[in-house]
Amino acid sequence: MAYSFSQQLLDWYYKNKRDLPWRQTDSPYEIWVSEIMLQQTRVETVIPYYERFLAAFPTVYDLADANQQQVLKLWEGLGYYSRGRNLHQAAKMVVDHFEGSIPSDYNTITELKGIGPYTAAAVLSIAFDKKHAVVDGNVIRVLTRYYGIEEDIRSGKTKKKIQTFADDLIPFDKPGDFNQAVMELGATVCTPKNPLCNQCPLSSDCVAYQAVKTETIPYKSPAKKIPHHQIAVGLIVNQQNELLIALRPNDAMLGGLWEFPGGKKESGESLTQTVQRELEEELGVKVDVFNKFKELKHAYSHFKITLHAYWCVITTGNPKPISGQELRWVSLSEIDQHPFPKANKTLIEELHQMDNSDLTRFVNS
Fold first, then answer.
1. Number of neighbouring beta carbons within 10 Å of residue 340
2. Cα(138)–Cα(92) distance, rounded to whole angstroms?
């Protein structure tokens, strides 16, 4: 069955694979960059980021020599920013400890920051022809349907079973193509909803297809309810018509990105009280809070937020980076040079739409 599965799949892949930029290279560095970007991110979204990133950092030496702000600015909007920070740190490790060569064995490559079992298997198989089977969401869907696995795919036991099947199926010859073929099938044919079974090279032996269970396999137990937080931030303008921004610590979520200072609303306080408390805790200043500038919603992987931005004026104290790494006053013409999370970036886009020759007049208007 293993030979039949792999051969049919590879025959299909060579005829139907998408023309993607990371499939035009045998560079371990370029393949590694693509695999990091593709984690939890759609191919269509990744392509322009991948091309811009490699144009800026064509070699691992270029990436290692860059500063983190340059890396995060190019990553801006791609999300899961720890991927970019880890990739940057790992590039430094490759240059410092491996003479610029991506390690080609499993134990060594997993020592690099941000490389876990999936990424290691992908890079080693695609770049070095090593027999390591990848298991991502696409692979899980293909194999659970093919073998008729109806257990909960959130279960560690089920994941281990799927990994065993993948390890048994992957051939010694062209393991990288095989891994890409399974993922390609899951992405383009064996889709979550309305799979194109009539176009699948494996349908004649697929248990879920034969049993008409493609809509119920794979089974995933309900996720926990996603929390929703109210976040309030302050837009502070100085006499030079500059806005105050704060750099998030590297060990925090969205670390290394800039933001407008503020934070999560606590029980029993108003949004304006949230701004006052957060700015005193973060910056050591007291502020008067005036008109709301904007309210917007944003979803992260494990929670959602509504972001409320208020114009503020400092009444007592000078801002200091008590809880962050750095504070900076920037004009609107300079602000786009800094990497921001998506929600803050949306606020900046709104600020650019205003007649912003004198931001101070909007504070009390």
1. 23
2. 31
- Residue in 126, 117, 203, 196 with CA at minimum distance from that of residue 162: 117
341 marked as binding residue: no
Question: Is 261 annotated as ligand-binding?
Answer: yes
Q: Please, what's the b/e burial string for 179-210 (b: 16 or more CB within 10 A of its CB; e: otherwise)?
A: bbbbbbbbbbbbeeeebebeebbbbeebbbbe
The enclosing H or E element of 296 equals strand 286-299
Contacts of 87 (CB under 8 A, 6+ apart): 32, 33, 36, 63, 71, 113, 114
* Residue 150 among the catalytic residues: no
- List the pLDDT tens digit at each of the 365 positions of the chain: 566 899 999 999 999 999 999 999 999 999 999 999 999 899 999 999 999 999 999 999 999 999 999 999 999 999 899 999 999 999 999 999 999 999 999 999 999 999 999 999 999 999 999 999 999 999 999 999 999 999 999 999 999 999 999 999 999 999 999 999 999 999 999 999 999 999 999 999 999 999 999 999 999 999 888 899 999 999 999 988 899 999 988 877 888 999 999 999 999 999 999 999 999 999 999 999 988 999 999 988 788 999 999 999 999 999 998 876 799 999 988 999 999 998 999 999 988 887 666 676 666 65
Quote the pTM value. Answer: 0.85
Residue 220: CB atoms within 10 A of its CB come to: 13
What are residue 296's phi and psi, to 5 degrees? -150, 160
Identity of the amino acid at 21: P
Residue 98 marked as a ligand binder: no
Strands (E), 211-285: 228-236, 243-247, 258-259, 262-264
Are 260 and 343 in contact by the 8 Å Cβ rule? The answer is no
362 is in an annotated binding site: no
Strand partners, 36: none
Query: Domains plus CATH for the chain?
Result: 2-210 (1.10.340.30), 228-363 (3.90.79.10)
Q: Which of 88, 89, 66, 75 is nearest to 41 (CA)?
A: 75
262 is in an annotated binding site: yes
